[in-house]
Amino acid sequence: MLTMDENTDKPEKNVFQAVAVDGSSVRNIRETKKLTQLYVANVVGVTTDTISRWENNRYPTIKRDNAEKLAAALEVSLDEILRREEEPPPAEEPLPPPSIRRHHWLLLILLGVTVLVATLLLSRPIATAPSAVRWLPTFGAPGEIIPVQVKVMHRDPGTGGIIVRVQLPAGWQLVNASPRPATGQPSGGEVKWLLPGGSDTSTISCTVRIPRDAPLDSAASFAGKVVLQSGDSTRTENIGGTGKVTVNGRHWADSNGDGRIDDNEIMPAYYLTEEMKGLGLDWQTIEAIWSGKGYTWDKTRREFVVIP
User: Fold this and answer.
1) Rounded to a whole number, what is the distance in angstroms from the first to the last CA of the chain?
2) Sequence-ordered list of residues with C-beta below 8 angstroms from that of 161, at least 6 positions apart, any chain
3) What's the domain range around 22?
4) N or C: which end of the chain has fewer CB within 10 A?
5) Are 167 and 295 within one domain?
6) CATH at residue 211
7) Does one domain contain both 203 and 119?
8) Which PROSITE patterns does the record match to this protein (predicted)?
9) Interior/surface letters 122-151, b for 16+ CB within 10 angstroms, e for the rest
10) Cα separation, 9 vs 62, whole angstroms
C-alpha cells in the first residue's frame, strides 16, 4: 500500500473529534460492493494495514475526518458505518450531603458546558464526498503499463448524462479503456467519456503507459473533472482520490515499494488484473515476481529482472 500513513493507530485524545466505527459493517459493505482494501486505502489516504485494523475493530475510535472519507470510499453515509451501542442507564445515587451540594452544582455547570461544546462540534455538516474518485498505483517504472480507475457515483436518480475528463501527465499514453472513451485522438493528453444517467455507480478502467524516458524519482500528476447534468443546468466538480504516481523503477503492484510482491499485495493485484482483463496489464510478470524472491529494475534495458 501507500508508504504514507496516518495517526489513527492511536486513539484520539480529543473524543469530540473521534467516532467509533463498526469494523464488521465496513468489511461487509466493502465486500458487498466488491471494493478492495487497496482501493479504499488509496481514497482515504492510509495504508491497507490501517483499513484491516479498522475492519477488525482494533481501535475504539478513529478521526472523524477519516471516518467521513471512509464512508465516501464505500459510497455510503457516515451513519451506516458507525458503531451502535446501548448505553446502560445511569446508576441511582444518594442525595449528597448539604455540605457538598455546592460542589455538585459546579460540576453540573461544567458538564453542561462540555456537552454544549461537544454538540456544536459533532453537529457540524459532514464533508460532501466527491462525485468521482480516482485510484492510481503508488509507483511505476519507465515504459510500464499501469492501471487507472475512476469511480463515478450517481447520487441523484434524476441526474442526466455525465461527462468525465481525465488529464494524463505530459507524454503518458492511453493504452486501452473500458468503457471506451469518446472517439478521436486525445487532445493535449485529455481523455473524455460520456456516461448515461442513472443511480448506479460507474467505473472507468483504463491502462496508460509511462514514457520510457521518464526520469526516475519523478512524480507525475493526474487531473480531471466531471460535468454533471441535472435538468437544464450543469455543474463541474474535480475528480477526488489520489492524483500522483512516483516513477522510480518499482512495479505498480509493489504497493509499498520494497522490491517484491508479497501475499498481501498479490490478491489486490489479481482482482484488479481480472477486472481489467484485456486492457494490457502484464499478469505473468506480476506472478513471476510473487513466485520469486523479488525483482530489480534494469536501467539499461528498462525492464524488470525477477530474482529467482
Assistant:
1) 24
2) 194, 195, 196, 197, 229
3) 1-86+95-129
4) C
5) yes
6) 2.60.40.3670
7) no
8) EF_HAND_1, HTH_CROC1
9) eeeeeeebbbbbbbbbbbbbbebbbbbbbb
10) 8
Compute the distance between CA of residue 200 and CA of residue 76 in angstroms, rounded to an integer: 13
**Whole-number Å distance between alpha carbons of 243 and 240:** 8
Residue 101, CB-side half-sphere exposure with 13 Å CA sphere: 6
Residue 295 parent element (H or E): strand 294-298
pLDDT per residue over 248-299, tens digit each?
999 999 999 999 999 999 999 999 999 999 999 999 999 999 999 999 999 8
What residue type is assigned to position 168 of the chain? L
* 161 plus 234 within the same structural domain: yes
Whether residue 270 sits in one domain with residue 156: yes
Tell me 285's DSSP state: H
Look up cell 460492493; give the residue: 33
Residue 74's CATH number: 1.10.260.40
Model pTM?
0.61
- What Å distances lie between residue 122 and 15, 17, 37, 64, 116, CA to CA? 10, 8, 28, 9, 10
| Neighbour-count burial of 160, counting CB atoms closer than 10 A to its CB (0-12 exposed, 13-18 middle, 19+ buried) | middle
Contact 178, 280 (CB under 8 A): no
Each residue's pLDDT tens digit, 86-135? 445 555 455 555 555 566 667 777 777 777 766 665 655 444 456 889 99
Q: Which three cell numbers stand for residue 245?
A: 504516481
